[in-house]
Write a structure and sequence with these properties.
By secondary structure, this protein is α+β, with helices and mostly antiparallel strands. It is about 15% helix and about 40% strand. It has helices spanning about 15-20, 65-85; strands at about 30-35, 40-45, 95-105, 115-125, 130-140, 140-155. The longest helix is centred in the middle third of the chain and has 20 residues, at about 65-85.
Amino acid sequence: MTTEATATNKTLGINEIKEYLPHRYPLLLVDRVVDYELGKTITAIKNVTVNEEFFNGHFPHKPVMPGVLMIEALAQTAAILSFMTMNVKPDENSVVYFVGIDNARFKRPVEPGDQLKMDIEILRTSRGIWKYKATASVDGKVAVEAELMCTIRANEKAGQ
């Protein structure tokens, strides 16, 4: 019996996550979905390790996860919820674009060894634009919060 089948605790492992996201190493930033409610919320985690490529340059003397990558991890988590809500798995032509990032606030650094817990709530969807309340925390302390707006489009091939 998998926990995904239970009504109260819905999870996705990395192989299931890869079915909903086109991202791959080194830019796949969601390790596990620990709970979700279609059309409403999702909670996922990113295990931050010293082996991450970005720590080589950000910063060698004091490794800190870049804020833009925390926002990207939140957006990837939101995309998983959106695709699952639409009951669609993206194909090689699906692309999720940022439309806006509002009220982003960075509250604490994220370092190697931290587990980034990402909570997403769908605020609304209209005309193909999804708006989310996004919060990432470490040990119950908010690291970053923002309102994200994204849209899902088919990638147009160059020259067409």
